[in-house]
Design a protein that fits this description.
Chain lengths: 262, 277
């Protein structure tokens, strides 16, 4: 009979690993403390949450026109920022795609720009742009643009890398230039993925354009903050409701478009 | 019928060479001398290969898997860089060409792959328009929509030559294998090539469609006064659709003879163990 040993159900970790696990656990417990996690406050807070939510209803629709206008601006910021962001992303994605880049230096430079745009959070960008171009929707639009570059640039580059090589080889064998190969073989093949990513970027942009107002970068956010600060909960309720409607609408429309192009 | 055409054309070629062209030396579209190629890790694939292809000739290149047929075709256009080679292709010394001239040379050679390599999400017409990349500039060959009237009409004509004008508006991913390969041939015709190369053009097609595509390829070669060099694993194709058969084995050319002087059993020797013949 051949001798074979069945694997143990659970491997007993070695000393080094055990210490590592214990350290991780301790760090997590410490973090809970740092995060001021408190069951007591949560329980005490629940009635207040209910009260605030109750005071928001019924939402005050008397300023519907004003809120509607602010919502429109919010959406316009998101839309314009996304469109320009997508265009810049596309330009940056070409050198950032390993298979399309004209040089290694450009590859690293463009990858760095994209990573930098992505790793700085949008509110930080918004504060920076408010400080440099002033309060208002333009600062918000710039923020969304940069945020979109961070998001789309990476995915565009990856989808260009994944595109089938055969057609590109065929075109280059026919004497087509690098540029022609990108426009005629790479872009058409990567188009569904581009559109898909851009739609996600738009959804993301709508959500972030809502909060950018908090730091004065235009849009509905500032109205929400003012309403909350002045304890006008019914107005705040109306604003939150309209934010909810806008986000849902954009998500529905974009998933509808997505289904069509796939 | 094919064979009749074949013989007739072969005789014509020999006649032409005998009477001598305007130029003093007999002009060979392709002359490969001393081509060496080794892949790091794989070792030598081509070891001093010499191959001449005459004007209007149809040459079948055969040989077992991994014998270096694709490498030979690609090295002749420097799609893969040979280690050593003295190739004259359509009058150009290939090894000395710069980027631009190399592109200009490649543009004159229609290359059909085993896989059609069409841009699947683009229309058939757009794929054929791509064939004009080397002779247009700007956006003209990007897409059928951006192509000028003349290019579009030419592309339709090329599609008509392969019998697919009625499919011009379909997307390339809706085509059958045979249709796709025909579109790839139309795209190659759009290059206004002087030379056609094909690497196992019908290997993924069923026997009937495969014959049809070979008929088309050879027919167009004859009608357009082109020269054809293609790779095939189908010995019937090699015998029926070529003036000359070249067999690659042990890194060198072991067979080089008119198709009419060869038989299937003689060609089989190329694949067996001992093929010193
Ligand atoms: N890029 C490469 N790097 C390393 N080895 C390669 C490369 N391309 C081809 N080879 C090897 O070189 C040899 C010849 O390949 P090639 O594709 O030219 O053969 P082939 O005659 O076309 O074969 P097939 O009939 O299977 O198409 C093969 O053994 C292959 O593994
Ligand atoms: Mg091959």
């Amino acid at each position: 009979m051949t001798d074979f040993s069945v694997q143990k159900r659970v491997e007993t970790p070695g000393v080094f690993r055990s210490i590592l696990y214990i350290l991780c656990l301790l760090f997590f417990l410490w973090s809970c403390n740092g995060a001021e996690l408190s069951l007591l406050e949560l329980i005490e807070g629940i009635p207040h949450m209910g009260r605030v939510a109750g005071e928001m209803t019924p939402p005050d629709v008397s300023r519907a026109g004003f809120v509607g206008k602010a919502m429109l601006v919010t959406f316009q910021m998101a839309l314009v920022g996304t469109v320009f962001g997508v265009m810049f992303s596309f330009l940056l994605a070409i050198p950032a795609a390993r298979s399309q880049t004209p040089s290694r230096t450009l590859y690293y430079v463009s990858r760095f720009i994209i990573s930098f745009c992505r790793s700085v959070p949008d509110l930080v960008w918004a504060i920076f742009f408010v400080a440099s171009v002033g309060l208002g929707a333009f600062a918000g639009t710039l923020t969304i643009m940069v945020d979109t570059v961070g998001f789309c640039g990476r995915f565009f580059a990856e989808s260009m890398e994944e595109v089938e090589k055969g057609p590109q080889e065929a075109l280059s064998t026919m004497g087509a230039s690098r540029m022609s190969i990108i426009t005629s073989a790479v872009v058409p093949s990567a188009m569904p993925s581009f559109v898909n990513t851009s739609l996600f970027a738009l959804e993301k942009a709508v959500r972030s354009s809502v909060v950018l107002g908090l730091v004065g970068a235009g849009g509905i956010g500032i109205e929400l903050k003012v309403a909350m600060d002045l304890f006008q909960y019914q107005q705040a309720g109306a604003i939150i409701l309209s934010i909810f409607l806008l986000v849902i609408c954009v998500e529905q429309i974009s998933s509808c478009i997505r289904r069509r192009i796939m | 019928m094919t064979e009749a055409v074949l013989l007739g054309e072969t005789e014509k070629r020999i006649d032409m060479e005998a009477s001598g062209d305007v130029k003093s030396s007999p002009e060979l579209p392709l002359r490969i001398s001393g081509m060496h190629k080794r892949y790091p890790g794989r070792g030598v694939v081509l070891d001093g290969v010499n191959l001449e292809v005459g004007k209007r000739e149809a040459v079948a290149l055969i040989g077992s898997n991994g014998s270096g047929k694709s490498t030979l075709l690609r090295c002749s256009l420097r799609l893969i860089e040979p280690d050593e080679s003295d190739t004259i292709f359509l009058g150009e010394k290939v090894q000395t060409l710069g980027r631009r001239d190399l592109r200009a040379l490649r543009a004159k050679v229609g290359f059909v792959f085993q896989k059609h390599n069409l841009v699947l999400r683009s229309s058939v017409l757009t794929n054929v328009v791509h064939g004009s990349f080397a002779r247009t500039w700007g956006v003209k060959a990007w897409n059928q929509a951006t192509a000028p009237k003349g290019i579009r009409e030419e592309a339709m004509y090329c599609l008509d030559r392969v019998g697919l004008a009625h499919l011009s508006a379909s997307r390339a991913d809706r085509l059958s294998g045979g249709e796709s390969q025909r579109v790839a041939i139309a795209r190659a015709l759009m290059q206004k090539p002087k030379f056609l190369m094909a690497d196992e053009p019908v290997a993924s097609l069923d026997p009937r469609v495969g014959d049809e595509v070979m008929d088309l390829l050879l027919g167009l070669t004859r009608q357009e006064d082109l020269t054809l060099l293609y790779v095939s694993h189908n010995l019937d194709h090699a015998l029926n659709y070529a003036d000359r058969i070249v067999g690659l084995s042990d890194h060198q050319i072991k067979i080089d003879a008119p198709a009419t002087s060869l038989s299937k059993s003689m060609l089989r020797g190329l694949y067996g163990g001992g093929n010193d013949d």
